[in-house]
Amino acid sequence: MSAFRDAVHRGDVDAAVALFAPDAVFVSPVVHRPYVGRDALRAILTAVVGVFEDFTYTDAYGDDDGRVLVFTARVGDRALQGVDILRAVDGVLTELTVMVRPYSAATALRERMAALLTP
């Protein structure tokens, strides 16, 4: 779990994605259906690195099977707080769920991510 945190802090998307199982699931804070697979996760994390400003993890809770990483960031002029909920099986990450607040920051995030991810 610390390898994921360190990769994200460095902005190293490939290193972060390599920690996940091939069929890993990403649950978005702004899209109702989960994304499945490393390719989807890579596209999302790449966009996030470009959208979040001043991103930093501030706390961590959990154990080897699951961890909650608390973070702060900005999207444009909107400050946000969020959590990355990581699940693992036998040391391999299997799921990443992201939640953010407040609603105005989540809306700004959705708009910026949609612009980057929509073909």
UniProtKB/TrEMBL annotation:
> Where's the SnoaL-like domain?
3-95
Q: Which domain of life is it from?
A: Bacteria
InterPro entries, alphabetically?
NTF2-like_dom_sf (IPR032710), SnoaL-like (IPR037401)
Per its record, how is this protein called by name?
Answer: Nuclear transport factor 2 family protein
The organism of origin for this protein: Pseudonocardia petroleophila
